[in-house]
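RETRY 2/3 - previous attempt timed out on the joint model. Re-submitting the same 525-residue input unchanged.
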Amino acid sequence: MGGGAQSGTKLRIAAAAEDDVVVTHEDIDRAEDRARVSKARTGRGLRARAWLLWLLIGPGILVMLGENDGPSMLSYAATGAKFGIGFFLPFVVFTFGMALVVQEMTVRLGAATHRGHAELIFERFGPFWGWFSMIDLGIGNFLTLITEFIAIRAGLGFFGVPPWAAVLVALAVLFSALLSHRYWTWERVTLAAAAFNLIFVPVALMAHPRLSEVGHAFLTWKPMPGFNRDTVLIVLSDIGATVTPWMLFFQQSATVDKGMTTKDIRFGRIDTLLGAGLAAAAALGAILATAPLFGRMSAENFEAAQFAQALQPLIGRIGASLFALGMVEAGIVASITISTSSAYAFGEVAQRPHSLNLPVNQGKSFYAVLGLCATAAAGIVLIPGLPLVFVVLVVNVVAVLAMPPALVFLYLLVNDKEIMDGVPSPRWANALAAIVVVLLTAAGILYGISVVAPNALAWIGRL
Amino acid sequence: MSGAEAGWILSNLEPDQLTLAKKVPIARRQLRGWQLMLVWSLRVYLVFMLVVVFWQAWLAVR
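RETRY 2/3 succeeded.
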């Protein structure tokens, strides 16, 4: 059945048996996707399982590689340049473990309820808490979107592309991904773009890291950095580079839009695990790539082009160019996923149609919010004289601080037996989620202490 | 749309995956005492910490 051939906003159909059912264009497209999954499920053997996995991957990989965005890659680059190879290599892998725990919950929640995260918070806990969550998400998403365009501008600036042209290229890619008005096509186009995040791996190899040092770092978590304000800031920044509120909203909404059901949860977990693995590889690549700058460059100023320029004498023009291109890719993919996350959340809260399967005339508000968020953030980057470094400095820290309140709602929802449709949350998942909330809150408090009472931080370090 | 096509769509989607089914609101639940205390505590924590962060970043930029 050709979903695209259906016209009109809604088609009233007589269901095979008794009741009248209203089916939308969105339903028809989703049914096509689900039919392919059902057919793949009947197959036997490794090839059939691989095909099923191919059909069901998407939201997990996209959310993890999407979070390897401009500010995140800059944070990893600053980590390598400032601290070299040591504690932060295993620490970054640990933060992806935290992201995995949290994101797995959104897969279960989306597959069991078929509702987005914003929608569930509003309906289950009421508009008071719903609006708080929306304000957190809105501020965080918009600040992050600005930093994506800063990264794109800086990355393309390395090749001499003027800022206005860099921003236009990014917006053109973002809108091109939407042209099909089909979730499946959008997902595959964005996945293809996200694969380029792994460009940081060959860049790392060009830096010729010593395998013995890397192995030692993973085994011992050493050398440890000094316990001071700089370390706390980079710890917080690296955590904010892997776990942020938009990821919860995005993956749950994408899981719903993809049409995943409780039968697909296992594959949703594999998808998220794959995403975490790939994103961790790219993050470690960025740290290892900039590690040769350790002791040679001040990493106070988080500018992508500066890292690429500083790396050029060490890894050559090609390596530096790949690094700059990696920053551009990180910014473009994240601008796509984050603006989509905002559009999903708006549609869920305003009860307007919200799906990437919608034609433009049926999803005007969805596409308008998506386009406006991206265009406004891109426009801000072009205004001369704005203190954009301010945004880059705060964005990852704000993400870490906003996570504990968001995680508590996620925890309550995923343990809500009335909506979870016979998919109970395992104890181990609840325990891990509680540990993540405690760790994130503690990291935030430590940062607060480092700002308000730096001497107290030194005292804690001696304990 | 024929009945066969309609049946095909319905056989491939779970009932609550239909767009129309998603318009049915989910019942509200009340937060318990400890849950309310936890979400309020984290809200206060977030607001306080955001003030600290923006103040610090503003000083750094100036």
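Chain A touches chain B through 59 residues (CB under 8 Å). Closing ticket.
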